[in-house]
């Protein structure tokens, strides 16, 4: 375990947790194509499968590059589908509900629980800290809730679960983190961001939030461009949180 030279002076008031690769095991390179491919079957009469898949993936990843405004990520995503495929938001919503009813379960085998995740979360709630599931909000709330359920983590009373309905930025944009801070009236130094992605999660440091890099399933696209305040595996994280 690698720690910064300065140990925190007091416990955090809030802990922000990334989800995929941090609180559960999933290979998103398999999950995303499986999700979009299953969804495409419900729009086959409106768009060719390949065009639908390409448009949804493009619109999803475009959210990561957006600078944000007053629109939610959901509005941006659905606007892209309407422009490129002619699918109105209401029509997408209706067919998405059909997908949830008969296709979502097919993604469950791609998610594996992580045993220590429950211990880590339980400790945070025992300490009465604000707990945020700070997953990158490029998916609908139902898809985030399903991953929590399949990971055995859906029974905790989270204070916020970010999804494309309730956000207007994505990680690593600083606005994603400042919106969470503002929503709870928190100062950056009162929080801890926990994640396995050296770009998306460690970007919290840009707004002054201390960061813990969980290196069990490390994602490092930029060759260490962002540095964490703390680093270790899940057992190290649990021990750290027990001691602050």
UniProtKB/TrEMBL annotation:
Gene3D superfamilies: HAD superfamily/HAD-like. InterPro entries: HAD-like_sf (IPR036412), HAD_sf (IPR023214). GO terms for molecular function: hydrolase activity. Keywords: Hydrolase. It holds the Pfam family Hydrolase. It comes from the Bacteria. This is HAD family hydrolase. It comes from Geoalkalibacter halelectricus.
């Amino acid at each position: 375990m690698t720690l910064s030279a300065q140990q925190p002076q007091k416990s955090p008031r809030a802990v922000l947790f990334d989800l995929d690769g941090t609180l559960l095991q999933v290979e998103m390179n398999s999950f995303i194509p499986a999700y979009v491919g299953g969804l495409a079957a419900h729009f086959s009469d409106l768009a060719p499968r390949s065009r639908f898949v390409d448009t949804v993936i493009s619109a999803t990843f475009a959210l990561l590059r957006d600078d944000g405004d007053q629109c939610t990520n959901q509005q941006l995503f659905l606007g892209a589908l309407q422009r490129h495929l002619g699918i109105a938001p209401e029509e997408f919503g209706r067919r998405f509900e059909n997908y949830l009813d008969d296709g979502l379960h097919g993604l469950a085998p791609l998610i594996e629980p992580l045993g220590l995740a429950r211990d880590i979360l339980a400790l945070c709630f025992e300490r009465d800290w604000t707990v945020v599931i700070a997953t990158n909000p490029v998916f609908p709330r139902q898809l985030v809730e399903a991953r929590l359920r399949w990971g055995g983590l859906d029974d905790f009373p989270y204070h916020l679960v970010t999804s494309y309905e309730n956000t207007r930025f994505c990680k690593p944009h600083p606005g994603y983190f400042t919106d969470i801070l503002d929503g709870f009236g928190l100062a950056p130094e009162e929080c801890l961001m926990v994640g396995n992605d050296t770009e998306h999660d460690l970007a919290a440091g840009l707004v002054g939030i201390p960061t813990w890099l969980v290196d069990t399933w490390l994602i490092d696209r930029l060759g260490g461009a962002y540095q964490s305040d703390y680093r270790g595996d899940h057992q190290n994280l649990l021990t750290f949180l027990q001691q602050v």
